[in-house]
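Annex B. Sample input.
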Amino acid sequence: MNTLVRRVALTVAAIIDTPAAQAASGGPLAEGTGTLNPDDELLLQGLFVRIWRHLKVQSADDEPLTKATTPDKLLKQLDLAVSHHGVDADALLRLIDVYLEEAVRTRNPRYLQSLWGDTIISGLAGDMLASLTNTSMHTYEISPMATLIEQEMVQTMAHIAGFDAGEGVFTSGGSNGNLYGLLCARDWKLPGVQHDGLSGRTLVAFVSDESHYSVNMAINVLGIGLDHLIAIPCDADGKMDVAALSQEVDNQKRAGRMPFCVVATAGTTVRGAFDPLPEIAEVCAREYLWLHVDAAWGGAALLSPKHRSLLAGIELADSLCWDPHKLMGMPISCSVFLARKANTLAKACSHGDEANYLFHEENAGVDRGRISLQCGRRVDALKLWLAWKSLGHSGWQERVDRCMETAAELEAKVRSHARLVLMSERQFTNVCLRYEPADSDGVDLDALNSSIRERISTEGRLMVTKAVLGGQVIIRPVIANPDVDGAMLDELLTEIVRHGDELSGS
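Annex B, continued. Sample output.
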C-alpha cells in the first residue's frame, strides 16, 4: 500500500471508528467481510474522504467557484484516453482529485448562474443510496420499496397540484416531462395513433415564444414537425398573450390543420414568467385542446402558501412537469411528470404490455415500467423522499419563501442603483438586469454586458449567466440557494458595476 492510499485508509478508519459513526451505521464495521478486493476498498475509502472534503470546499469563502479552464488547456493537462490495461486505486484517486478540482462549485451560494443550486444533504444521501443498491424502477420485484416510495411521492405532488385522482412518474428531467405531456396529448387527440400513425393528419401545438427549447425537441421526436409548433407572442412581462393564442387556434383550424395541445410555462427560463393558466385553460376547454404546463422551474412555488398563487389554475391542466432538482435542491436528475386523470400514462405507454420477460400479472398494478418511456431507470424518488422526510412541508415552504425574499431584495437593490436597469418585472427568483454607463452614447450595451458577465465568471468568485431579452443582452442572476444573503448580492452588484465602469471608461 503506497503512502497516499495508506493515509486515506487511516483517515477513513478514524472517521468510521468513532462512537458517533458506529451509532449512525448500526455498530462497528466488521473486518474481512463483503466481496471487495483490497484495491476497491482503498478506492472507496479514498472516495469517502474526498466527498467529505469536497462538501467543505463547496461552501468555502476563499475558493473560486470555477477554474474557468479552457477545453484545450484542460485536455493538455489530462490523459483521458483509456488503455488495454487498467490502473490501480491510487491512479484513480488522482484522477478523481483532478475532476473535483475542475468541477464548478454549484453548491456555493455565490453560484447564481442556473435554475438550480445548493444540494440538500439528505437528497445527496438518497442519490448515493440509489447508486449503491443499483436497482431499476421498471418492476416491483426488483425495487419493492423504491416502487412504493415513488408512488407516494407522485401522489403527494399530484395532490399539491390539485390532481387528486391523477398519476405520474419520475423522469430524467423537465425536457422528458414535456415529451410525456405532448405524447399524452397526441394519444388523447388521436386514440389510434400508436398503431395508425399520423396518417396524413397535421397536428398543431402552441407554446409561448419564451418557452423552453425542449418543447421543440418533443415535437421533433413525436414526428409532428417543427413547423407545426406555433410560437405565441408574450406580453411585456413575458406571459403568453391569450388573445393571440385564441386567434392562432382559429387560424390553424381554417388552414385545415388539427390543433391538439397548448404548452404553457410556469416559470420561464429567462424571466421566470408564469403564463395565465385560467385563461389558457378556458381556451383549451372551448377548443378541445390538451393543456400541458411546463412547471419544471416554477413548480416549487406550489409548496409555499404565500406564493402558490403564481400557478393559479394549475388544477385545470391535463398534465405538468416539475423538477425538484431545481429550486428544491435535489441532485440532478429528479423530475416528475403528472397527469390529472388516472390511466393516462398506461394508455400512452401501452407499447410495453407485451414484454412478458419483464412484466408479470401478479404485479400488474404496481410495476412502474408499464407507465414509463424508460425501462432501465434510476431510483430518483428516493432522494426526494428522504429530503421530504427530513424537511417536512414546512421546510420546503421556508426554502421557497427565503429564495423569493432574497430575489425581492436583489430587485430592490437594482432599482435603486444609478447604473443598473431592471429589464423585466420580477415574478419569481430570476432577476433580469443590465449595466448602463452614465453616458451610453455610442456604447454597444450588448457587447458591454456580455464582457461584464464574462469577466465575472472568469474570475470565478461569482458565477452568473447572460441571456437575450427583447433583442437585448441582459445579465440574469437566479436565486436558487436559500443561503444567498444580502452581502453576496452587494458583492455581485459591486462587481457588475466595477467591471462596467472599467470597460466603458465611466
